[in-house]
């Protein structure tokens, strides 16, 4: 699944939980948020953790798909937009709305969300250089050629030692 030029970065459930809490910690000092807009599907788990830590009860989703085969990014498809009444909380531009996603990669998905909610605060757990300029708050930067294996996309199995060249 990983191309030879890519670096693998496996993220465990424990690490994701710690990193999402670290994101919440950073966000706590920035603003009091009216609601979270979760970018599905990757943003679901981090959004739940951030919402709990910051005491946010109003959560909506924006559903955008681009990874159709789990390996390469294709055309973006907006499956569900943000609920109009939620946008109105932010004076029609997303003010005091917190957008949460697991990762910004190329920035294509982030650009779509920023166009919908130009004043919203975009927060991701992980960020890559091509999309980092669109993110207001993140926890960990990884190189563009790193493939992050999130816990919901992996299973436990034997891994041969690095010395075996696999």
Automatic annotation (TrEMBL):
Residues that coordinate or bind 5-phospho-alpha-D-ribose 1-diphosphate: 41-42, 101-109
One cellular component term from this protein's GO annotations in UniProt: plasma membrane
Binding site for GMP: 105-109, 147-148
Domain Phosphoribosyltransferase: 12-158
Location of this chain's protein in the cell: Cell membrane
GO molecular function list: magnesium ion binding; xanthine phosphoribosyltransferase activity
Reaction equations catalysed: GMP + diphosphate = guanine + 5-phospho-alpha-D-ribose 1-diphosphate; XMP + diphosphate = xanthine + 5-phospho-alpha-D-ribose 1-diphosphate; IMP + diphosphate = hypoxanthine + 5-phospho-alpha-D-ribose 1-diphosphate
EC number: 2.4.2.22
NCBIfam families according to UniProt: PRK09177.1 (NF006613)
Function: Purine salvage pathway enzyme that catalyzes the transfer of the ribosyl-5-phosphate group from 5-phospho-alpha-D-ribose 1-diphosphate (PRPP) to the N9 position of the 6-oxopurines guanine and xanthine to form the corresponding ribonucleotides GMP (guanosine 5'-monophosphate) and XMP (xanthosine 5'-monophosphate), with the release of PPi. To a lesser extent, also acts on hypoxanthine.
Binding partners and assembly: Homotetramer.
Name assigned to this protein: Xanthine-guanine phosphoribosyltransferase
Gene name in the database record: gpt
């Amino acid at each position: 699944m990983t191309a030879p030029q890519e670096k693998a970065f496996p993220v465990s459930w424990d690490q994701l939980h710690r990193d999402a809490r670290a994101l919440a910690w950073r966000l706590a000092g920035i603003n009091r948020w009216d609601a979270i807009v979760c970018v599905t599907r990757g943003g679901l788990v981090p959004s739940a953790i951030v919402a709990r830590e910051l005491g946010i009860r109003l959560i909506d989703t924006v559903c955008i798909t681009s990874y159709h085969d789990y390996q390469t990014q294709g055309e973006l498809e907006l499956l569900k937009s943000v609920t109009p009444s939620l946008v109105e909380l932010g004076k029609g531009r997303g003010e005091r709305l917190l957008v949460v996603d697991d990762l910004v990669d190329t920035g294509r998905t982030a650009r779509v969300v920023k166009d919908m909610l130009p004043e919203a605060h975009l927060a991701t757990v992980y960020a890559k250089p091509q999309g980092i300029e669109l993110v207001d708050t993140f926890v960990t930067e990884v190189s563009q050629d790193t493939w992050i294996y999130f816990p919901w996309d992996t299973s436990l199995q034997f891994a041969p030692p690095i010395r075996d060249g696999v």
